[in-house]
Design goal:
218 residues; eight-stranded mixed beta sheet; 6 helices; binds zinc ion
């Protein structure tokens, strides 16, 4: 595995919190050769917008979710718990999924609401089984992309995941849960509705096609 020589580009805003911009470092010959060989050998540039602090930045993540040490420090800080300011590294599988989502919607920015957290927005302690508490979950939206589209893409592409749709709050929750069965839900009026119809449709192309022909949209 090549180290990430492509230095992450953090665009600082006037506000504190993000690391100072770092001058790009030239690629060593072998990395350059790989880069020329194909874009799949390159890390994905994930453009981020912090919904809480209203700041933007870009991090580089390999397709398998690996990052270099500097990026790890940035990931921990960016996705820190909002109420306690505690930091935890986000799971590699979750970062891989995030990189894939970023790659699937090129030129778009991931606007994230919450990732690692010890308390939720109401101030209640996050449950011990929460994927957020374990650093495996991210809540986000992508401006210009339907939440439905993101939701269905992740659900039909991955297994060992949790995907939650929050239409009122306007975000999608994604998490990785190795060894735990897939879980899908829609959050409506304070309640999780598990195994919603959209999750059936998203994994059944024939059903999706039949419904689309009738103008139905899950
Ligand atoms: Zn969530």
């Amino acid at each position: 595995m090549l180290p990430i020589i492509l230095k992450l580009k953090i665009m600082t805003t006037a506000m504190a919190g993000w690391t100072a911009a770092v001058a790009p470092v030239p690629l060593p010959a072998e990395a350059l050769a790989t880069a020329v060989a194909g874009t799949t050998a390159m890390p994905v540039e994930v453009s981020l917008y912090d919904e809480n602090d209203h700041q933007t930045g870009t991090i580089a993540i390999w397709r398998d979710g690996a990052t270099d040490d500097a990026t790890k420090a940035d990931v921990k800080r960016l996705f820190r718990c909002r109420s306690t300011h505690r930091q935890k590294m986000i799971a590699q599988k979750t970062l891989a999924m995030l990189a894939d989502v970023a790659d699937h919607y090129p030129g778009k920015t991931i606007e994230y609401v919450s990732a690692f957290r010890l308390r939720n927005s109401s101030g209640d302690s996050e449950s011990s089984t929460s994927p957020h508490r374990d650093g495996r979950a991210i809540d986000f939206r992508i401006r210009g992309v339907q939440l439905r589209d993101i939701r269905d893409y992740v659900w039909r592409t991955y297994s060992d995941v949790g995907v939650g749709w929050y239409p009122s709050e306007q975000f999608v929750h994604i998490d990785t849960r190795p060894g735990i069965h897939d879980t899908s839900w829609t959050f409506l009026r304070g309640v999780n509705h598990y195994h919603p119809f959209w999750s059936e449709v998203a994994r059944d192309p024939a059903l999706a096609a039949r419904l689309a022909a009738r103008g139905y949209r899950s």
